[in-house]
Amino acid sequence: MADKENATPASAATRLTRAAAKRGAADSGAHGAPAKRKRVALGDLPTLSNAVVPRHQPPSHAPLVVKPPSKPAAEEAAEAREPAAAEGVGGGSPASVSTSPPAAGADPQYASDIYTYLRSMEVEARRQAAADYIEAVQVDVTANMRAILVDWLVEVAEEYKLVADTLYLAVSYLDRFLSAHPLRRNRLQLLGVAAMLIAAKYEEITPPHVEDFCYITDNTYTRQEVVKMESDILKLLKFEMGNPTIKTFLRRFMRSCEEDKKRSSLLLEFIGSYLAELSLLDYGCLRFLPSVVAASVVFVAKLTIDPYTNPWCKKMQKLTGYKVSELKECITAIHDLQLNRKYSSLTAIRDKYKQHKFKCVSTLLPPVDIPALYLQDLTE
């Protein structure tokens, strides 16, 4: 009895940990070893310039993408009950997701100063990828190869349950690297996993290990190769890994824009996240600033939900700082992506947002033509 009374919390915790370990071992023996994670290698990329490769019948030299195993019904039901926590609007972690826009006046007084600062950061040349690097720098990499890689990175992010900001930063890193360094196509996937490794270390609480990224490529690359590429990217970035992305601005716009109370605010957020990820596929969207893409995404998302109301209003113009005429070209690009006019064979993002936890928003389509009136600047 004396020993029990004098037991320390540490010793009690140790006993609990050991007991939990024994129970876990027993459960593992009872139910069998956990299924191994499927892995995938992109392999050699096609030589056809900007020719989209169908994923359902890939040739031997095309990327082979293996979807992760489906989730049990009980897990799907749990995610349906907590859509925001499972989502990725703010990332994928519950702490970073806002299930509804804040009330008026909820933003701190310095929110506009932060936005101004982010806008000043995004125009800095060192934080931007060249809009023409495929033509000006790359010899062996095409825009279609880049799109295939980004499509695969979306699946990697889903496989490892990475937050959305990790994906956007990874794509930013790889575009900035390709803007400065010619790369052989057989090293493109290596660049992608190294960029995601860096982004995960920056954004994630528990990032995947180097070996995880080797494994997901079917060990096409060694640990040393991934670490070397990681070092090359960091040198290019000068170890400045923070950067405003489309997601940075989209989060602010989504929380602030007005939405009909009859409609779920989550629906707008899910459509916005879906369209923003689609924009990552399009090399042509590099010519737009992240804030321009985010504002255009909000426009098309609101158009999809309510085609009979002008998506732009004076409040949105003031919030974003953009007139609709300044967004017109980007709006058209996002609209084309949503209607499958570009990269229709790359389905990772579309399949991701067909899930019920995202309210199946990839099945929603906007009007085939955007009314000309909606693309005219608001009158004073």
What does this structure look like?
There is one protein chain. With 380 residues, the protein is an all-alpha fold. The protein folds into two domains: 76-100 and 244-375, Orthogonal Bundle (Cyclin A, domain 1); 127-237, Orthogonal Bundle (Cyclin A, domain 1), CATH 1.10.472.10. The chain is 52% helix and 0% strand. It has helices at 2-5, 9-31, 73-81, 83-86, 111-122, 133-136, 143-159, 164-178, 188-203, 210-216, 223-237, 246-256, 265-281, 290-305, 314-320, 324-338, 348-352. It is globular, with a radius of gyration of 23 Å.
Q: Count every beta strand, where a strand is a DSSP E run of 2 or more residues.
A: 0
Distance between the termini: 82 Å
User: How many structurally independent domains?
Assistant: 2
Total of helices: 17
CATH architectural arrangement of the largest domain: Orthogonal Bundle
Core attributes:
mainly alpha; Cyclin A, domain 1; 2 domains; disordered N terminus
Short précis:
By secondary structure, the protein is mostly helical.
